Structures are given as structure tokens and as C-alpha cells.
Amino acid sequence: MSGAVVAQREVETDAWSAALARAEGAKVYDDPKQLRRTIRAEAKAKEKRADAWKERTDRQQQGMAEKQKKCAWFMLLS
């Protein structure tokens, strides 16, 4: 069998599986538009979390630098 025939058979099998699952009342997540939207939303959320984490680490580094500077200042005074 050629690759096209195997691919066509696989597509038909997936379609029948989805149709049977819908007939049984199960939810089938195969809408390409909705899947793209979900993937985009997840990527955006991931980017937002990464930005928040970077901001947190930057704030933490800045706080540590300020504490070290303050400590060094007090060491000079004493």
C-alpha cells in the first residue's frame, strides 16, 4: 500500500472514532479553530508567567544589591 492510502485510512478511522464518541455523548476536541485558539492562549499565559518571574528575580537582585550597598556604607561609617 502507498502512503496516501494508509493516510486516508487513518483519517477515516479517526473520523469514525470521533463520530462514535459523539454518538455516545463524549466531548470530542477536534475543532482546528478552537485548538489553535487554545494553543495561542496557553502560549500567551506562559509568556506572561515568564515575564512575571523575570520581573520578580530582577526585583530580588535589586533588593540584594541595595542591602549590600547599605551594609558597605555602614561598614565605612564605623
Would you kindly provide a brief summary of this structure?
It is built from two helices and no strands.
Q: Which helices and strands occur, and which strands form pairs?
A:
Blueprint: H1 3-24, H2 32-77
Describe this structure in words.
By secondary structure, the chain is mainly α. It has one domain. The chain has two helices and no strands. The termini are far apart.
Describe the structure using short key phrases.
rod-shaped; 78 residues; mainly alpha; 87% helix
Query: Could you tell me the mean pLDDT?
Result: 92
Total domains, how many? 1
Main sheet characteristics: none
* Structural category: mainly alpha
What's the gyration radius in Å?
28 Å
Shape: rod-shaped
Q: Report the end-to-end length measured between terminal Cα atoms.
A: 87 Å
Number of helices: 2
Percent range of helical residues:
over 70%
Secondary-structure element pattern, one letter each: HH
Q: How many E-type strands? A: 0
| Strand fraction | under 5%
Low-confidence stretches: none
